[in-house]
Amino acid sequence: MTVQYKVLKPHDVQAAQSHQEFALDVLLGLSKSPKALSCKYFYDAEGNGLFQKIMELPEYYLTECEFEIFRDHRAGIAELIGSSRFNLVELGAGDGQKTRVLIEHFLGVGLVFRYVPIDICEEAVEELLQALEHYFPALQIEGLVSEYFVGLKWLSNQVRDRNVVLFLGSNIGNFSHSEARVFLYSLWNALNDGDCVLIGFDLKKDIRKLTMAYNDSQGITAEFNLNLLRRINRELGGNFDLDQFKYYSAYNVYSGAMESFLISLKQQTVCIDMLNQSFSFDPWEPIHTESSHKYLTSDIIELAEETGYEITEQYYDSRRYFVDSLWQVRKSKAT
Ligand code: AVI
């Protein structure tokens, strides 16, 4: 079966740009003190595979919580969003497993919508579309390979239907609070009055529970982080020795985030051919790789107010570990 999707930038231009961007970000990140690499580079083909495994881990409760929320509240969500024809837009859809629970229900109760996954990674969109076409042959799908806001703007210019945007799985947690504000305000800008967004937030909870979710017993999360160094070796001609870096993740009560690092186990120098540069590491020197922010309900209310949305409903799982928060875009009230 051939899947249909639109690439908003020619593939070779996009690939060259993202390769250059990766190289530049690695150069900047390893040149600063303390060193840092962006978690957005976790997700090459290998990283995507490792993240799928993380989502199946018993310790990584986030996925099962969101599944539970969708199973228990799909009827309520459908009622609140579904009266007229809409675009169900998903930002960074991944494998779409959780979204399938919603799509199946929406189709079952006769809602009229087209599903529009937007992702910068062409393979991710292609795979998702193939899976969904298999499960829902009657579903109208339009995949977009582009940056989120470029895709949304393109969509708004094509079809005047209402948009319901999904940003699930605590993806928002990988932004700092100020980045989250900028992201949500940019999203607001790309949307119309009355459009909806459903955002998955991981909530603050027992620190032992948080710590276990990012320090799984099988070491998959460690591999997921180390894969970033492997990716630099592969794509930029680096010579990181993965045995000489150790994964470490801990909760920072001040930032409210699980903060993850790769720590150099000895004094070492790493060369990256494509950057024509070497980087030296002291023993126990960290590279920051990811922050996964956890929220209080009051943070979520504040964030919605600050960025021009009205909260319609908060859907919690039974343990109140996670919330999917349904917001509506309010253009009239915005300053
Ligand atoms: C994608 N993101 C929301 C995950 C998180 O929880 O921050 C990525 C992840 N990192 C380690 N485990 C999962």
Report a brief summary of the structure.
By secondary structure, this protein is an alpha/beta fold. Helix content is 41%, strand content 26%.
Describe this structure in words.
By secondary structure, this protein is an alpha/beta fold. It has ten helices and 15 strands. The protein has helices spanning 11-31, 45-55, 61-81, 97-108, 122-135, 148-158, 177-190, 207-213, 220-236, 297-307, and strands spanning 5-7, 35-36, 86-91, 113-119, 140-141, 143-145, 162-167, 196-202, 245-252, 257-264, 268-272, 277-281, 286-293, 309-316, 322-329. The strands form three sheets. Strands 1, 3, 4, 5, 6, 7, 8, 14 and 15 form a nine-stranded mixed β-sheet that branches. Strands 2-13-10-9 form a four-stranded mixed β-sheet. Helix 2 runs antiparallel to helix 9. The longest helix has 21 residues, at 11-31. The model has no long low-confidence stretch (mean pLDDT 92). The structure holds N,N-dimethyl-L-histidine. The site of N,N-dimethyl-L-histidine has 10 residues, from strand 13.
